[in-house]
């Protein structure tokens, strides 16, 4: 059903919005007019004064109409995953202290395939500057040692035939600067992903407006909400990168 055609039930639903629902009221024009609900996309005078957590359509729309909740939920979920990806990648950067996470990006060629090291071996810290790698299958211990050597982590694996020992060498000042630069690069990759998610969400809103499923004011409100989410997520990435850079450069 298009936004311009409503039943008496829809009008009643619009009236019911005045019973304490806070936030934007995306009431379709005709139903809103009958119910006395504003269509500007701003908070209704009869709405609760509680802080608004999200913008949303307060009337149930037909399947072919704009679903603000779905757009925001999808953008939020994808942005959160991008932040988590940045966090995990930052953990793989070596700072001079033993951290099993630095081996997370090591890939071992074994059994005719490339397999992440953490799927074929356990890694634990034995001291502030040493790691111990124990393979689940002793026959591929040499393959694991070769993978660590080739990963360009600045580590020399000591394979005694049973386990692999890794000692963290001191990180030079030049190497620390390189790692800090790499951390910043990982952050930029994450922010590019965030901007792409933002663009796709905004495009969805604009298409809904063009199809007359969303008013101009509501479209602006939706785009503003997406931008606020983008700014907040970008700030989170910047904070994580700054913390990692500080950790890397600390002697």
TrEMBL record:
Residues that span the membrane, as ranges: none
GO BP term, example: translation
InterPro entries found in the cross-reference section: Ribosome_recyc_fac, Ribosome_recyc_fac_dom, RRF_sf
Keyword field contains Protein biosynthesis: yes
GO CC terms, sorted: mitochondrion
SUPFAM superfamilies reported for this sequence: Ribosome recycling factor, RRF (SSF55194)
GO molecular function annotations of the record: ribosomal large subunit binding
CDD domains given in the database record: RRF
Span list, region Disordered: 208-233
A UniProt-annotated Pfam family: RRF
Gene3D superfamilies reported in the protein's UniProt record: 3.30.1360.40, Ribosome-recycling factor
Keywords carried by this UniProt record: Cytoplasm, Protein biosynthesis
Domain of life, source organism: Eukaryota
Localization, UniProt: Cytoplasm
Ranges of residues in domain Ribosome recycling factor: 89-249
Entry's family note: Belongs to the RRF family.
Protein name: Ribosome recycling factor
Organism for this UniProt entry: Ectocarpus siliculosus
């Amino acid at each position: 059903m298009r936004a311009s055609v409503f039943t008496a039930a829809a009008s009643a639903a619009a009236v019911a919005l005045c019973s304490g629902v806070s936030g934007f009221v995306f009431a379709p024009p005709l139903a809103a007019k009958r119910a006395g609900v504003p269509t500007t996309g701003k908070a209704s005078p009869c709405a609760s004064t509680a802080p608004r957590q999200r913008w949303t359509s307060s009337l149930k729309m037909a399947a072919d109409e704009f679903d603000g909740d779905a757009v925001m939920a999808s953008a939020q979920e994808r942005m959160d995953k991008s932040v988590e990806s940045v966090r995990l990648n930052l953990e793989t950067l070596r700072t001079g202290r033993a951290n099993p996470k630095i081996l997370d990006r090591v890939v071992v060629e074994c059994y005719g395939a490339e397999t992440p090291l953490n799927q074929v071996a356990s890694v634990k810290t034995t001291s502030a500057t040493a790691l111990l790698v124990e393979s689940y299958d002793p026959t591929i211990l040499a393959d694991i040692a070769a993978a660590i050597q080739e990963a360009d982590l600045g580590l020399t694996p000591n394979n005694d035939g049973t386990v692999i020992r890794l000692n963290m060498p001191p990180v030079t000042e030049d190497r620390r600067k390189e790692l800090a630069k790499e951390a910043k690069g990982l952050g930029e990759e994450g922010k590019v992903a965030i901007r792409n998610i933002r663009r796709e969400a905004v495009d969805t809103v604009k298409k809904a407006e063009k199809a007359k499923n969303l008013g101009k004011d509501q479209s602006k409100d939706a785009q503003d909400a997406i931008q606020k989410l983008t700014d907040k997520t970008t700030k989170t990435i910047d904070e994580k990168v700054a913390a990692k850079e500080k950790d890397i450069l600390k002697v």
